[in-house]
Specification:
The protein has 223 residues and is of the alpha/beta class. The chain is 45% helix and 11% strand. A six-stranded parallel beta sheet has the order 3-2-1-4-5-6. Helix 3 crosses helix 4. The longest helix is centred in the N-terminal third of the chain and has 19 residues, at 65-83. It is globular, with a radius of gyration of 17 Å. The model has no long low-confidence stretch (mean pLDDT 94).
């Protein structure tokens, strides 16, 4: 019997409030290379993008895949070093995952982050067992707002995207989920409620979530 719906989670800013730490390490990484991006640049050209998109743009020149991968690993090592001792789930996440698991609702990860960061977070929070599917930067060609990551995440749990509920914190991620055909809930870890009015629902954390709300959003959206 097919489940009533599936849930697709972005990672940074959704499972964990990592964005302040990513910003810190992106700026540190940029400064090490003599670059000084401002907040507007980060919002428009970095957040939600895969490393192979934003790193060449930041440096303003063509880079080989080998150069990009080396620079990406340098930046991600900085991030993991800074965040390791600070890691904690967004409030209410674990009980919500328990609820979904109890009701046999399939769950997938849909992140622009590299696999090393996905492993770092899932294992650091001890939540890997909840996820039936995992899509990360190695699985996609395009970063958000392109819908690829959510289309592939829905496929990983064998559901049509219209039967999936996306949790996102970034504006480009919300756009990606909507374009994929999913119902989308925005979390205010990164943006204000006023900036996220295109999401179907906006919440502060998972304390506010229950099964009835999830089902109502998916059913209303798919009609």
């Amino acid at each position: 019997m097919e489940p009533a719906f599936g849930v697709l989670f972005d990672m940074d800013g959704v499972l964990v409030d990592t964005n302040p730490f990513h910003k810190q390490t992106i700026l540190e990484f940029a400064h090490l290379h003599g670059l000084d991006p401002d907040d507007q640049y980060l919002e428009q050209h970095v957040y939600g993008k895969i490393n192979r998109e934003w790193i060449p743009a930041l440096f303003g020149r063509n880079l080989s895949i080998e150069e990009i991968d080396r620079l990406a690993e340098e930046k991600e090592l900085l991030f993991r070093r800074v965040y390791a001792s600070e890691m904690k789930p967004v409030s209410g996440l674990i009980p919500f995952l328990d609820l979904l698991h109890h009701h046999e609702i399939p769950v997938a990860l849909a992140t622009s982050a590299p696999p090393e960061n996905a492993d770092f977070v899932l294992d650091g929070l001890h939540i890997r067992s909840y996820f039936a599917g995992m899509i990360h930067s190695n699985h996609v060609t395009f970063g958000k707002p392109h819908p690829e990551v959510y289309l592939k995440a829905a496929a990983s749990i064998q559901l049509n995207p219209v039967k999936c509920l996306v949790f996102e914190d970034s504006l480009s991620g919300i756009d990606a989920g909507l374009t994929a055909g999913c119902a989308v809930i925005g979390l205010t870890t990164t943006h204000s409620r006023e900036e996220m009015t295109h999401a179907h629902l906006v919440i502060d954390d998972f304390e506010q979530m229950d099964l009835k709300t999830c089902l109502r959003l998916v059913e209303h959206h798919s009609v």
